[in-house]
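Obj.: predict assembly geometry.
Materials: sequence records (below).
Method: joint structure prediction, all chains together.
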Amino acid sequence: MIPISWYLILSLVLFAIGAFGFIARRNVIIMLMCIEIMLNAVNISLVALGRGLQDTAAHILVFFVIAVAAGEAAIGLALVVLLFKKTREVHMDEFRALKG
Amino acid sequence: MKYVVWIPFLPLIASVITLLFGRWMNQKRAHWLPCIAVFGSFLLSMKALFAVIHGARANFDLYSWVVADTFKVSVGFQIDPLSVMMLAMVSCLSFLIHVYSIGYMEDDPGYYRFFAYISLFTFSMLMLVSGNNFLQLFFGWEAVGLCSYLLIGFWYQKKSASDAAKKAFIVNRFGDFGFALGVFLVFLTFGTIYYQPVFERVHEIAHATINLFGHDILLPTMIAVLLFCGAMGKSAQFPLHVWLPDAMEGPTPVSALIHAATMVTAGVFMVCRCHEIFELSNVAMAVVAAAGTFTCFMAATIAPTQFDIKRVIAYSTLSQLGYMFMACGVGAFAAGMFHLFTHAYFKALLFLGAGSVMHAMHHAPDPTDMRYMGGLKKYMPATFWTFLIASLSISGIPGLAGFFSKDEILWSAFASVYPWGKVVWFIGTFVAFLTAFYSFRVVFMTFYGEFRGREVLHGHEPHESPKVMTIPLMLLAIGAVCTGWLGIPHVLGGENHFGHFMEPVLGHPHFHIPHAWEHNEAALEFLLMTVSTLMGVAGIALAYVVYIKKPELQRLLPEKVPCLYRYLYRKWYWDEIYHYTIILPVLFTARGIVQGVLDAVCIEGTVNGIPDLVRRGGEGIRRLQSGVVNTYALIMATGAAVVLLLIYLF
Amino acid sequence: METLVFLYLALVLIVTSLLVVTNRNAVHAVLWMLVMFFHQAVLFLTLEAEFLALVQIIVYAGAVLVLFLFVIYIINLRTELKIRNFHIYWPMAALVSVVLVVLAVKAVKEFCPGPVVGDMTPKLIAQLGQAKVLGKALFTQHILSFEAAGVLLLVAVLGAVVLTRRIRFRGEEG
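Observations (raw structure tokens):
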């Protein structure tokens, strides 16, 4: 039996990597992928906790997270396509229209 | 005697109504209300006068004005010989001048404003003299100063007039500062500022001292000198005399009313009212006498050099006011008031006569310049005769008013106990000579000889003024002659009614007759009288010689002693001295320091700096919002890290 | 034995995710992500959540990543060899991430699970299979969320269609 804290640590590390990627990458598609990484990290920790506390709610939650992540990926990519159609540019730091 | 309340309030009501509704009262109607109101005041004053002659007195409070713990002041009236005499004189002169102004200010666009202002002035002066406490005196004091400002600057579009008005007001303020300090000191000493308790208890402080900057000064001296500061400002004594000649920028009725008969005499009135305080302090009496003597002499030396007819009469006023203060300075307060009384009539007459002459000359570029006058005797007989009577009166010719009052002053000065009495007498007598000289210089230059102003009048002939102007002149001439008869001294067989009338209030001067004459007082008085009369006659004779017989003598002084002439002509350079020593430093302080540093740097800096700071801060913070999503994510993550760090640390 | 498996899976997960994050080529990144998802599915299997492992593969690996690939090919993303890959402040980002991890790990290191709360005992799973257990809970206790998720997916589908359709002018439509 592997202690749950190991799973949690793994989840945190993956989350940090995903966060770093999201903050530091310029390409929109890679950024969306980093969001998926972060969601997966959360999934790992939820499953581990569900197993540890023997609660079905955690696994149900994972189920929903996966569903929502899929939907969000779809919409996000649709927006990326739309953005590319308009500006032919996929690097996030070129989009500065909301500069204050 | 409650009706005396209406004496000041009738002109006030008239003034307010005229000021508010004057624009709709047509030109010819604006003068009715003020004239009737002032005439009403005059009748009431005469009634009060007769009541007081028969022994009535009054001292009552009308309306509680200030009630502040221990300090209680009301609007109150004190009717005694001194105040009722002033009330009668002020209202009489005011009425005559109101009537005169109907003719003089006929074509002026500010007609209703003028009447409103002189009625307001009448109210202020009447409040000043009838009050029963120092605060009401001060109120009247300030109010007459205000009216003087309004009236001197009546033609406010003219720069010289508005400058003169400001000068009058500001110079007065210097004096009023001292006066206010004096009133504060009175309150501090006595705990009240009503006349009656103060003057009853004034002997308590006869030897009290007050510590000022380490020196012990006699308390009565301090109070008296401070109060006298106000008198110096209001009555234009040296060093605060510079405003009076410039005040001639105002219309002539204003000069007659304010700067001859009433406002400038407020100072003398105040000194006489407070004479008990002054008498306790030799230093204060010396100060009063010195100021009066110096002003008297200085003005009399400047007057013969001026060409502006009103300026000459203004300096004459300064000189005569000096006489009044000389009288107060030697303890003869009743004599000072008597001279005030007679002077009001003949000085007002001189001014109004000059106004009549100016009215005739008004087409000229400078109607006051005597060099363009001359020979007006045949064009304006009424003006000429009344002017002549006034000039004779001021020169001290026996039988006319000025003789009796001036001689009483000179006699009291010579015979007084104070050591400076003889000096005062000497200078006073010399100035009598100068007075006669310059007064008749005016008469001869204006009314005798050939008319020199034909070119400047573009061919018009000067004409006599309308009746509404000449009748007040004649009435004043009667006054200039007869008012003196109220004070005929014993030595000439009279009863000196005036002196006896004032005695309950002003007391009796203390005399110290020199040894040799101790038993022959009357003879001494007679001798002195003769001396001063001779001086007057000599002055007239000299004027006649210089201006009629041998006109080339006029050039004598300017050519032979040009520095002296220039010194006198430029009014002893006092205006220039004040300009460099007082005005320029004050302007420098105001503009350079206060405006330049305090205002521009500190206040503007703060007021502009705070929004500037906010703006720059905002601009700086604005850069945080770069529009790039990744930056926002970084900031969010950093925030989370910081929170965790804080939780971990604490 | 279990520990070894876990360690291997953890290592691969971390390495592949790093590769995803730092790759220049988007297609390579997607492929590394695929590898990561497979290993994650195996991790789920070790946690006796076989249904979730299947769902992970089908949905994530099978649908989402394919979608990513489609979009990459639509926008014709080339290898970014010449241009900058990361933002200029990536050290800061790295620092922040490290700090977050360190602090969080410090907090979580001694995590002990509390008393058992639910009913998903290993016996039950062995008896019914995780799918049935999940299904029972899903369709009885969490039915509302289930329906809401359904609506959400519907909205996502419609949204994707609406967002990317070509807008024709009224006149041209005929």
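Conclusions so far: Residues 2-85+119-164 of chain C form a domain with the Four Helix Bundle (Hemerythrin (Met), subunit A) fold (CATH 1.20.120.1200).
To do: check interface contacts against the pulldown list.
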